[in-house]
Amino acid sequence: xxxxxxxxxxxxxIAITSVVFLKGIYPAGAFERGRYMxxxxxxxxxxxxxxxxxxxxxxxxxxxxxGLVERIAVIFFSDEKIPMEKFLFKIDMNHSNKSYEQMMEHxxxxxxxxxxxIKLSQSEPLFKTVVSQDLxxxxxxxxxxxxxxxxxxxxxxxxxxxxxxxxxxxxxSMNIEPLSVQLYIEHPTVLET
Length: 193
What we know:
By secondary structure, the chain is of the alpha+beta class. It is built from 6 helices and 7 strands. Helix 1 (3-23) runs parallel beside helix 5 (106-121). The longest helix has 21 residues, at 3-23. The chain starts with a helix and ends in a 6-residue tail after the last strand.
């Protein structure tokens, strides 16, 4: 795994765990506090939760390296497979800049990623908009073009789509060469709830 890709996957693992923690659908005991980039974060403690997040993101590594991954979504949905909320990480990694280590100060990138995680932890009120005991969730990747290799390993989502354009709530964005990340929430319009 390249340093740039490894950093993005590691960051997304912490960020997605934070989204799931802040959503409050698991007991607090499923998480533990730890340090990442010298800030306090929540990490998955439950083995299945930890494995699902880690495995899902690590399966995307070759697709990140090829520049195919556009967005990663954490979709919260009802038993009827109707999405209630989508937390989307829009990711753009500039792979044309091969001299990444020479041109980018690692400390500057780390500072931006830390700022992103701090903002995420301070956005807790945005996570409590949809609360349900029957809420389920999944990680979904959106690609710029279909991945050509091992199509059999991909599991299509069975989550229904909204009929109307969603309401979008931006949370945080950062743009530091060669990485651009935006986090926003999509909610169904009033007509669909």
